[in-house]
From TrEMBL:
GO molecular function: DNA-binding transcription factor activity; transcription cis-regulatory region binding
Single GO cellular component term: nucleus
The name this protein goes by in its record: Fungal-specific transcription factor domain-containing protein
The UniProt record lists the keyword Transmembrane: no
Compartment list: Nucleus
Source organism of the structure: Colletotrichum godetiae
Record-linked Pfam families: Fungal_trans_2 (PF11951)
Keywords of the record: Nucleus
Annotated PANTHER family: TRANSCRIPTIONAL ACTIVATOR PROTEIN UGA3, ZN(II)2CYS6 TRANSCRIPTION FACTOR (EUROFUNG)
Length: 510
């Protein structure tokens, strides 16, 4: 406990250290004002009351007595841009950046401690806060200014890795010198986290940006960092430390968001399932498989658009089979994967983020990871029907493959519907909602005049779940406020309208 009764003394100390040591943020504001305005949910329980906080405020001069009499006046003091963004980060950005919000939230603990000694990470956090603060104001340049400074700071890091350092060793007895060229450079945790945050939050301000400009740099830094951490050894599996288990899923999340995946990505690393990742939930390995499945699917779709052979002379048929085999590998891993037991997972300390809900979300990731390849490769769907006929949703008027796709999509939506509306896991529903919603959009309503009441019920059921998808996405937009969610809603509505009018949706569902 610190002197203000703080139950998170490291966070309290970090705020003070950041303000004192970071040259970007040099204000004369008392620490009590910082803590009063940087209020997360349940502030008084974690940090103490305003009266307790006033004990560490020591204003000088004639205003001292006045400030101690009415602490509320502190909230009306002039506050500069950096202070406002710092406040916004702790009060609003931290809760929406993590699937749980408590003292265990890495953005309140690890990140606040790390940016106290890292100007680079501080700039990245300010960019993160400014992007969220000004996300609905396209004319604001605040996010761009912090982003520019952060990129300037981080631009030297990849060069230290790609440009080898010449090291000379003199042999004894006047022997010839040995000249070694090495690119070994220890990538700091703060540097890696900084570039990941830049990539992930780039679309917060500009929804057309999918952090592709940061991918190459972050991959280079990540590979070097993983090597330094001993996570790239193919001969042995390693259990990650807590900080590693925060950074690696962050990179996985960044890769999946950018519709890409690092091919040589810690093949033998064991993602710890003993605690919840703020980005991906309880099973990062499932989320990473979901990202990997997208690679063969995109290659298959690119083959559909061209009839030419690729540069290596491989025919379309061979390229298709390669994509099919890779997709089959990941589909099999998703379908047969085992989720961790709830008793083995560390509690998040957040009553709005229960472990059972994280496990349900991981199950939806698994289903989505199977549904995607079934949509892209009919062979995989037929194989699943042969091995598991009960997976389909029987209905006259649609083929068996569509019944399979619909059955899995409704399984996802039924699972999500059981999760309470105020659960924080909703922040990562977007991907599986789009996957399931796209399947609903492709199912054309059966002709009720030719069939019985079952078809009428079927059509109404599809309409209900379609509304559930759009309502869930709208709720996510209200919570997070990112315009990329609006684009997803527009996409699904357009897909549905194309089906209703009997026109082909083309590549929009991709």
């Amino acid at each position: 406990m610190c002197k203000v009764g703080c139950r998170l003394p490291r966070l309290c100390l970090s705020i003070e250290v950041v303000l004192r040591n970071t040259r970007v943020l040099r204000t004369r504001l008392p620490v009590s004002l910082i803590l009063l305005t940087a209020r997360p949910t349940g502030f008084n329980k974690m940090f103490g009351t305003s009266r307790e906080l006033s004990l560490i405020s020591r204003p000088r001069g004639k205003q001292r007595l006045k400030r101690q009499t009415n602490n509320a006046l502190l909230l009306h003091e002039p506050r500069d841009k950096n202070f406002l963004l710092f406040n916004h980060y702790f009060s609003l950005v931290c809760p929406i950046s993590s699937l749980f919000d408590s003292g265990q939230n890495p953005f309140r603990s690890y990140v606040s401690e790390m940016m106290a000694s890292s100007r680079l990470l501080f700039l990245c956090v300010m960019n993160m806060s400014a992007s969220d603060f000004r996300k609905n104001d396209g004319s604001s340049i605040a996010p761009l200014s912090f982003q520019t400074e952060a990129i300037s700071e981080i631009s030297e890091e990849p060069c230290k890795i790609t440009n080898p350092t010449i090291v000379t060793f003199d042999k004894p007895n006047n022997g010839p010198s040995i000249i070694l060229s090495t690119s070994l450079y220890p990538v700091e945790d703060e540097v890696l986290l900084g570039i990941i945050l830049l990539g992930i939050t780039s679309s917060w301000y500009d929804p057309s940006s999918l952090d592709l400009s940061h991918i190459d740099g972050s991959r280079l830094l990540f590979q070097s960092w993983a090597k330094d951490q001993g996570l790239d050894c193919p001969s042995e599996s390693r259990i990650m430390t807590r900080i590693q288990a925060f950074l690696v899923p962050s990179m996985v999340y960044c890769e999946v968001l950018s519709l890409a995946y690092l091919d040589t990505f810690l093949e033998n690393a064991v993602f710890p399932s003993s605690f919840v990742c703020p980005w991906t939930g309880v099973e990062t390995s499932v989320f990473s498989c979901l990202g990997r499945i997208g690679s063969p699917i995109r290659r298959k779709r690119s083959l559909v658009r061209t009839t030419l052979q690729d540069e290596s002379g491989i025919s379309q048929g061979m390229a298709y089979m390669n994509s099919l085999n890779e997709a089959s590998l990941w589909e099999n891993q998703m379908h047969r994967g085992q989720l961790p037991k709830l008793s083995s997972i560390e509690d998040t300390g957040d009553i709005k983020a229960l472990l059972i809900h994280f496990r349900q979300l991981a199950h939806c990731y698994q289903l989505g990871g199977c549904l995607e390849p079934y949509c892209a490769f009919p062979e995989l769907a037929r194989a699943r029907l042969e091995s598991d006929p009960a997976a389909r949703l029987p209905c006259d008027g649609i083929d068996k493959q569509s019944q399979l796709l619909l059955g899995i999509a409704l399984d996802i939506l039924n699972t999500l519907e059981t999760i309470p509306d105020d659960c924080r896991t909703i922040a990562t529903w977007t991907l599986v909602l789009i996957i399931a919603g796209s399947v609903l959009g492709k199912i054309k309503a059966v002709d009720e005049r030719q069939f019985m009441s079952e078809q009428y019920t079927f059509n109404r059921n599809i309409e209900r779940w379609g509304k559930f998808v759009l309502q869930s996405l709208s709720r996510i937009y209200q919570i997070i406020g990112l315009r990329t969610i609006q684009r997803a809603i527009t996409l699904l509505v357009e897909v549905r309208s194309h089906i209703d009018f009997g026109t082909a949706p083309g590549d929009q569902t991709e």
